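ugh ok fine here u go
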Amino acid sequence: MRLPAFEKKITPARLALAIAIIGAWALLAPSANAAGGELRLDPAQVMGPDACGECHKSSVSAWKPSHHSTTFKDLPRSKKAKEIGKKMGIRRIKADSDCLTCHFTSAVVGEKTKPVAGISCESCHGAGKGWIKLHSDYGGKGAKKESESAEHKTKRYADSEAAGMIRPSRLYQVANNCFECHTVPNEKLVNVGGHTAGSKFDLVAWSQGEVRHNVWYSKDNNGASANRKRMMYVVGKALDLEHALRGVGKATKKANYAKAMARRAKAARVALEKMAAAVQAPELAEMIAAAKAAKLKLNNADALNAAADKVGAAARKFAEAHDGSAFAGLDAMMPGADKYKGKAVP
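structure:
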C-alpha cells in the first residue's frame, strides 16, 4: 500500500493498502471476536472498500490487484498460513482467528461479524461510518470541491478527524497502522506458530511499490515527492524503533520473538543515528537518547515502554514540525526505486 505525495495531493482512500494497520483511536477500538482475540477496527463502524470506491474509483481500482487486496482469497489457501494455523490451533483462518487482526477487514453483515476484504482503506484511515460522509461534504447538496470555502474546508477536516478519520497528512498516525502489523505484536504467533517476527518493512520502499493513492488528483498512480519520502523515511525508522522496543517489553521468553525484536530495535536506532549525523533535527537526538536509556532485556517492560513513548512523542513532533525540504542529506540513505516492494499499478 502506498502513502500519498506530501503535497496535499492526497486522497482519503490512499493508504488503502497499507498494511498494516491501526492504533488506539475512538473508531479503532478493539472488538473481541468469538475466539477471544481482538480486531483492530470496530466491525460495527466499518463501511467496506465499496463505500470508499463510490468516490475514489481510481484508488480502489489500483488497490484491487494489490497484495493487500488479494490476501482476502490468497491467505486461506496458503500452505504456510495453514501450517501456522495448525500450530496455533486455528481451524479456519477467516473465522475467529488471530489472522483477522491484520490480514482482513471485518464488518457486521446482517447480524454476524465477518471479513469482507483484505487490508483496505479503513485499515489505515479508520473505520468510516462516522466520517465517510463528512469528509466528502463540500458544503451541502450539489456543492463541488472547487467551490468549497476555506472556512468550510477547515471545519470539514476537523469534523472528519473528530469522527475518527486518520487523514493522510497525519503521517505518524497513518504510518503507525503499518507498523501495528508489520512488527507482529504477538509473541505466541512467532514462538509457537512459526510466523515471522515482522516483515523487513521500510515505509518508503513498501509504500511506493503498488498503490500510491495520488490518483484522485493526478489521475495516475504517481510516486511521492522527494520531500514526502524523506519524511516517511525518518518517521518509518522511528516507528520501527518504537514498536520494536514495545515488542521486547512484552516478550516473556528468550526465544525467536524477543531476539528478533531486540535486533530490530538496535537496527532502527543505528539508522536514526546515521540520519542524525547527516541532517539537523532535534527530534532525532530525542529518539536516540530514549532508546539508549532502556536496556533490551526481558522483564524490563516499564523502562522499554517509557522509552517507546518518548520515541513516539518525538516522532509525532517531527512529523508535525518539518516538511522534508531541509533533509536532502537523507537521499543517499533511502531505498531507490529498484528496492520498492511490488510493481506500481498504472
